[in-house]
Amino acid sequence: MVSVEPCWIILGAVILGGIFGLFQIPVWQGCVTVGIIVGRMLLTWGQGVVIGWVNRLYVMSRFALQGGLTSDDPGTLLAELRRLPPLVGTDKEVLRLMVGLFSLLVTCMYLFGRWRFRIRPRPFGPLLIYEVSPVSRLLACGLGAINGYLIIHSLAPFLLPQTETVVKVPSGQLISLLDRNLIPILIGFALITIVIGLQASGQSED
């Protein structure tokens, strides 16, 4: 069994996030950050509400497909459907739903940022890159690195306890390390946000 140090997992996520951000603009990465924060709130406090609504909608959709109010005995049909096992009931089903919802939310926020704040790319060999200032590119890189950290911080408590592979990850150490470094990461995010605001205000004055 291969043992992986927590610091390498965190470093890998930060590097990948920074590389991704290097080819973006800061506002797109800011939208991703918003998606991560909202997704983490759902993971932490909204599980019961989300699972309850998913199971309720599942029952109602089956009720409608089987005739709904036009069936011979709607009350009996609805009572039978409510006695069925819920769509999301086991720990694995909850894990898949919440991680999928988190990923969908982050992706949608990124796509929203791309749609709302469009800039024209230019060809760079086989790639398309965006003409932004070096400062903006560095800010996007920094935000991307922070987003990588926040994603690992959000998902590690949910994914790693379920992991049973040939790769051994000391999840307790990883989560503790992530928690210890969260405040400096948030301070870094606040500083980058301030720099972006100052840069934007300087451009508007010009």
What characteristic shape results from the CA principal axes? elongated
Residue windows where pLDDT falls under 50 for at least 5 positions: 162-170
Number of helices: 8
Structure class: mainly alpha
What percent strand?
A: 5-15%
Rg estimate, integer Å: 22 Å
Mean pLDDT: 76
Placed side by side, the strands forming the largest sheet appear as: 1-4
Helix content bin: over 70%
Produce a short descriptive summary.
With 206 residues, the protein is mainly α. Helix content is 73%, strand content 6%.
Task: Outline the secondary-structure elements.
Blueprint: E1 2-3, H1 6-22, H2 26-45, H3 47-65, H4 74-82, H5 91-116, E2 121-124, E3 127-130, H6 134-159, E4 167-168, H7 171-180, H8 182-205
Parallel strand pairs: 1-4
Antiparallel strand pairs: 2-3
Helix pairs in contact: 1-6, 1-7, 2-5, 2-6, 3-4, 6-7, 6-8
Give a structural overview.
The protein has 206 residues and is mainly α. The chain has one domain. The protein contains 8 helices and 4 strands. It has helices spanning 6-22, 26-45, 47-65, 74-82, 91-116, 134-159, 171-180, 182-205, and strands at 2-3, 121-124, 127-130, 167-168. Helix 2 packs parallel to helix 6 and helix 6 packs across helix 7. The protein is elongated, with a radius of gyration of 22 Å. The N and C termini lie far apart (59 Å). Mean pLDDT is 76; it is low at 162-170.
